[in-house]
Amino acid sequence: MKKIACFINDSNLLEKVTEFCGLERFQEECIGDPSQFVYDVATVLYLTDDPAALYPEGIKDIRVCYVGKDRPKDCGVFFLPEDFQMIHLRLLIDAVIHNGSFESSLAAVTPVFLNKSFKIKNDIFNVERIVYALTKDFVFFLNFQSLEKVRVGLAEMLTNAIEHGNLGITGEEKMSATESGTYYELVNSRLNDAVCMAKYAVFKFYVDADGLEMSLEDEGEGFDVDSLPDPTDPESLLKLHGRGILITRMYFDEVKYNDKGNHVTLRKRFGCSTC
């Protein structure tokens, strides 16, 4: 479980952090003095309202956030105003976990809905970073647990779109290359192919307080959706090919392909404004 370490004097602020950790399923580690700080790789953020306690001994690579009236002079410290809301701390922590950017100056602005589209290159070795870039604004609508499921499903679909769609690697080719230890050579050969290099994936989404709809389309030949393994068959869990679609179906209310099999729509309904 990820942890938030904090040295906080203001009881109201401490109560807010405690509530956040409970809602988002983070472990809270409160210390009574900066000298009590102990480094832990599970700690994602150190939070304090004391400008003299920004860098306790042993902080190492853990990111620091100061909560107060004025922004600290140290550019390496994140800043949240005293009246920050839960969503702003969620934005900050998500950025920290994924090495993203955080602009506290935007703390007064929250979207009601978002409708965006993206063109994606075949950068299959950086799918996790791409997925974060595509979904970083989802923190306005989803808590961390639900957001992680959405990202896992999208990562599976994007990997399929690039690998099997734009790069044209079949399930049999992937299985054979994986077993022979030549998978990376196979992928790199396709990435350097002029025809494959010219292909892109297009990602679109619409999200509001009621739900999320995403679509992903590649420029591959598609596939027969009906030929996918039965997700209720225990043997499907052991198969390399088709497992990503099975996982995605677990996390979304609807996963629908077009007839060609190169365009997928994912829908997820929200039961509340934070999930």
Automatic annotation (TrEMBL):
Swiss-Prot/TrEMBL keywords: Kinase, Serine/threonine-protein kinase, Transferase
Domain Histidine kinase/HSP90-like ATPase: 142-268
CDD domains according to UniProt: HATPase_RsbW-like
Transmembrane segments: none
Molecular-function GO term, any one: protein serine/threonine kinase activity
UniProt name for this protein: Anti-sigma regulatory factor (Ser/Thr protein kinase)
